[in-house]
């Protein structure tokens, strides 16, 4: 299969209609490749031949053979013994294909990988070969998996009549597949996709727009389908399906009309279709189903905070239909509307969801106060636990099963808010705790003692809690977001100073809705938990603004705060100009002379403004250079992390460098703080900074997190490379043992084969002896190299004393035949040559050494 002098180029993909997966699975070309593998007497040998030849393939050949292997993986029966090895080979070929300069995805490879991805999703338990294959499949294939298969190339498309040539022959494996498998795989994709709350709300917006844009001719059938889906979801207790049904129903609802009105807003007569829809009471049925979903016993659990958050967008749409403004009295009277009872119930439900329960109006749960206090204490204890990125990565793995819910969306919302919690934990204005890098973990970075808002309880980070002015009280203060009126939190932490207490809230606000500010539901004063604003020194000023306790970064060269320095600010320059105008008069009389100082005063006044402007320009240039240098350091750091190891030595070196990266990042954090401080100083002078300057500033803020994410990715990549090096080491050890067997066989021939005792074959025997001697030397070097790599990879050292034993066994034969060959070479010169050319001392020494060597050999053989 691999051999062949001519290789056809991959067919280009024409603008053809999308082909279903069945057309790919039944294509003669793919079926022919699978049948050839099934007919081959040794399929394993075929796979080994593919793997050995992969290094020498050109791009076109590599793509072609990857299509062959992908067809085997996608179409071979599940019980085929070589299927896992085919998956391992395909992962290897894809890694070869994804090297720099080999990233063109051909139509055939795209289509076959589509089938492979569908099959991978159907398997419930994946062996290591399949897991490696899933990681090697390009992202584009996974992104396009929810769509149809890519179009078949026109040169390869066939009609159904040509499928008879590749039907399964008797005694061979069946290659038939069913479309239900593809539907099941697509359902798995939809269930396991990772989305944030923002992503779900975007989907809800698209669904609302689509429902609102449906034409009148299609609206009747769509309403019937939505009602049926809602009833099925309530019967099955599927919270996700009920939530989607609420969005669809709200999108199909029409605005309420006044009772007795039979015309549209433009006073035009209603069409026959509209009158028929009105008589059928489809809108009434939609409102009835919506009330069942929101208020019915089989509907959604509106007491759940997660469900209320997921219903925020459809309820906002419903409020706009009802005309609810900021005040609840802005809506029209319910008695003037048609179907007043339904609209009144929907209005009450929308208002209830718009105003979440605060601490002062907490619903009763039926739990005794002692048990409720204990449960709250347990929740706080769980909240104070560090956020573990290992478990987060596992929960966000696309291969996991979807969360099954019944009547409540909290579990799903907890899963969706993981990224938002992570964003709240890692603050750009505060230094992130140094991640602990541990070799051998799936995701070795862990964040410790960060700010937490888990389960609606706010806890500041460890630095803020360590301040003397920050205290924990026994009172729970309810917090609400000013932007979305949601994101309810409770805070027990206060900032106490000068006999006053203010409630601490997250400085960056509600991250889910875009950073809305938190305020107290009871009207209590609140303060953000920014460390610099809460750290007061013994002199009763903020530590950063104290001349004695601060680091001096906020002070200029005149020992003044930068924001109040008259030299650097425009206000100071204007004040200096006024002072010059006041102190220097326009005309001065000196005796009989009159000196006009008008121009001098103007020049002096202008110099103050020019000096301030030049100083600010100098600060801007220094700020830009420092920011560029810091970003350049991060870019070089990321470039080092992107290199791939080629040997085990490079692997260990890269691992040590990667594990030392957090320390380098922490060192760069100090430089980032200096750059950001300089940026804030320039901004305080009201200097107009450009878009690129602002972009550079936020690049600096995001650089540490990006570097730590790259560290985690690099450690996972090094684990995969380490596994590959271990496999290569095993293969080399197997080849080395075969090499030793060949050496022992040759030594055995020298000792037992009579043909190797004949002096007449001296040249042949001498060449064999030289070859064995050279191979024994090479074997010793290889043994030391293999032991060295075993130590680097953390493996037990293999005992290669067999090499020394072979060398000791071979030594007498080597001495014997080397001495004999030397004698035969020099004998003719000594016996027949000129006596004057013979060096007597050298001859005597060589003959004596030969006699001694032969004596040792004879003693060994005896």
What can you tell me about this protein's structure?
It contains 31 helices and 8 strands. With 862 residues, the chain is mostly helical. The protein has 5 domains: 21-191, no CATH class; 194-255 and 274-328 and 338-355, no CATH class; 373-543, no CATH class; 551-714; 753-861. The strands form 2 sheets. Strands 1, 2, 3, 4, 5 and 6 form a 6-stranded mixed sheet that branches. Strands 7-8 form a two-stranded antiparallel sheet. A hairpin with a 2-residue loop joins β3 and β4 (500-505). α3 packs parallel to α5 (83-97) and α10 runs parallel beside α12.
Number of helices: 31
Number of domains: 5
Coarse morphology: flat
Beta-strand percentage range = under 5%
The amount of helix comes to: 55-70%
The quaternary structure here is single chain
Enumerate the spans where pLDDT stays under 50 for 5 or more consecutive residues: 1-18, 154-182, 188-194, 261-268, 325-336, 357-373, 376-448
The chain-level structural class is mainly alpha
What's the pLDDT, averaged over the residues? 70
Amino- and carboxy-terminal Cα gap: 57 Å
Computed over alpha carbons, the radius of gyration is: 40 Å
The main β sheet shows up as:
6 strands, mixed
Number of strands: 8
Task: Give me the secondary-structure topology.
Layout lengths: L20 H5 L2 H12 L3 H11 L5 H17 L7 H15 L9 H16 L5 H9 L2 H5 L35 H14 L4 H16 L3 H21 L2 H14 L19 H9 L1 H14 L9 H6 L1 H11 L17 H15 L14 H15 L5 H7 L14 H7 L1 H8 L31 E2 L3 H4 L4 E12 L7 E9 L2 E6 L12 E3 L5 E3 L2 H4 L35 H14 L3 E4 L2 E4 L1 H45 L5 H12 L1 H24 L6 H62 L9 H31 L8 H32 L7 H22 L1
Helix pairs in contact: 2-4, 3-5, 4-5, 4-6, 5-7, 6-9, 10-12, 11-12, 11-14, 12-14, 12-16, 14-17, 16-17, 24-25, 25-27, 25-28, 26-28, 27-28, 28-29, 28-30, 29-30, 30-31
């Amino acid at each position: 299969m691999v051999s062949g002098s001519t290789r056809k180029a991959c067919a280009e993909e024409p603008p053809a209609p999308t082909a279903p997966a069945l057309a790919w699975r039944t294509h003669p070309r793919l079926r022919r490749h699978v049948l050839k593998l099934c007919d081959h007497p040794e399929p394993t040998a075929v796979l080994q031949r593919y793997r050995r030849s992969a290094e020498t393939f050109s791009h076109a050949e590599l793509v072609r053979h990857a299509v062959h292997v992908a067809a085997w993986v996608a179409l071979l029966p599940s019980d085929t013994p070589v299927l896992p090895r085919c998956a391992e080979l395909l992962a290897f070929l894809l890694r070869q294909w994804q090297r720099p300069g080999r990233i063109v995805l051909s139509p055939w490879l795209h289509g076959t990988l589509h089938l492979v991805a569908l099959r991978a999703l159907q398997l419930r338990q994946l062996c290591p070969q399949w897991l490696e294959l899933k990681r090697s499949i390009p992202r584009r294939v996974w992104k396009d998996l929810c769509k149809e298969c890519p179009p078949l190339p026109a040169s390869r498309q066939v009609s159904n009549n040509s499928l008879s040539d590749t039907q399964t022959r008797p005694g061979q494996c069946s290659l038939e597949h069913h479309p239900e498998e593809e539907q099941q795989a697509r359902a798995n994709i939809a269930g396991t996709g990772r989305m944030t709350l923002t992503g779900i709300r975007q989907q809800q917006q698209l669904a609302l727009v689509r429902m609102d844009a449906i034409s009148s001719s299609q609206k009747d059938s769509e309403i019937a389908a939505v009602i049926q889906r809602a009833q099925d979801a309530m019967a099955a207790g599927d919270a996700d399906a009920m939530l989607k049904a609420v969005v669809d129903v709200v999108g199909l609802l029409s605005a309420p009309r006044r009772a007795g009105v039979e015309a549209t807003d433009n006073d035009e007569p209603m069409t026959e279709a509209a009158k028929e829809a009105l008589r059928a009471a489809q809108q009434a049925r939609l409102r009835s189903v919506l009330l069942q979903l929101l208020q019915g016993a089989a509907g959604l659990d509106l007491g759940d905070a997660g469900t209320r958050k997921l219903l925020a967008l459809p309820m906002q749409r419903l409020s706009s239909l009802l005309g609810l403004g900021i005040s609840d009295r802005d809506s029209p009277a319910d008695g003037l509307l048609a179907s007043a009872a339904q609209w009144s119930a929907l209005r009450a439900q929308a208002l209830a969801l718009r105003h979440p329960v605060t601490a002062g109006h907490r619903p009763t749960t039926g739990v005794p106060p002692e048990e409720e206090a204990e449960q709250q204490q347990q929740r706080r204890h769980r909240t104070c636990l560090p956020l573990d990125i290992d478990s987060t990565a596992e929960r966000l793995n696309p291969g996991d099963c979807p969360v099954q819910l019944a009547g409540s969306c909290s579990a799903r919302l907890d899963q969706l808010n993981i990224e938002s919690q992570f964003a709240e934990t890692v603050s750009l204005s505060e230094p992130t705790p140094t991640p602990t890098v541990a070799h051998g973990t799936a995701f070795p970075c862990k964040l410790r003692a960060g700010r937490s808002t888990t389960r609606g309880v706010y806890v500041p980070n460890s630095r803020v809690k360590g301040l003397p002015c920050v205290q924990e009280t026994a009172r729970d203060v309810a917090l609400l977001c000013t932007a979305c009126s949601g994101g309810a939190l409770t805070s027990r932490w206060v900032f106490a100073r000068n006999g006053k207490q203010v409630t601490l809230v997250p400085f960056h606000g509600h991250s889910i809705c875009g950073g809305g500010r938190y305020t107290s539901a009871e009207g209590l004063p609140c303060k953000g938990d920014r460390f610099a604003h809460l750290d007061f020194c013994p002199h009763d000023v903020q530590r950063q603004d104290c001349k004695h306790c601060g680091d001096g970064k906020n002070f200029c060269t005149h020992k003044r705060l930068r924001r109040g320095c008259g030299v650097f600010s425009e206000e100071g320059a204007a004040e200096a100009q006024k002072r010059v105008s006041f102190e220097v008069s326009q005309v001065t009389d000196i005796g009989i002379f009159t000196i006009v100082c008008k121009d001098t005063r103007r020049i002096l006044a202008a110099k103050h403004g020019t000096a301030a402007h030049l100083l600010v320009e100098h600060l801007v240039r220094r700020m830009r250079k420092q920011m560029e240098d810091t970003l350049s350091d991060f870019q070089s750091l990321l470039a080092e992390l992107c290199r791939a190891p080629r040997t085990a030595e490079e692997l260990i070196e890269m691992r040590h460098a990667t594990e030392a990266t957090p320390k380098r990042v922490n060192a760069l954090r100090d430089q980032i703080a200096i750059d950001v401080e300089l940026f804030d100083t320039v901004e305080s002078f009201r200097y107009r900074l450009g878009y690129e300057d602002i972009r550079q500033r936020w690049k600096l803020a995001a650089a540490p997190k990006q570097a730590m994410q790259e560290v985690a990715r690099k450690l996972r990549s090094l684990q995969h490379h380490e596994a590959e090096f271990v496999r290569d080491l095993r293969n080399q050890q197997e080849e080395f043992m075969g090499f030793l067997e060949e050496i022992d066989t040759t030594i055995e021939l020298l000792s037992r084969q009579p043909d190797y005792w004949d002096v007449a074959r001296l040249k042949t025997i001498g060449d064999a002896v030289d070859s064995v001697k050279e191979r024994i030397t090479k074997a010793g070097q290889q043994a030391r190299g293999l032991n060295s790599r075993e130590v680097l990879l953390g493996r037990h050292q293999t005992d290669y004393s067999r090499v020394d034993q072979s060398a000791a066994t071979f030594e007498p034969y080597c001495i014997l035949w080397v001495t004999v060959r030397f004698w035969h070479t020099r004998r003719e010169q000594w016996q027949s040559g000129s006596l004057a050319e013979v060096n007597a001392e050298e001859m005597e020494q060589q003959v004596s050494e030969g006699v001694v060597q032969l004596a040792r050999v004879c003693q060994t053989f005896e």
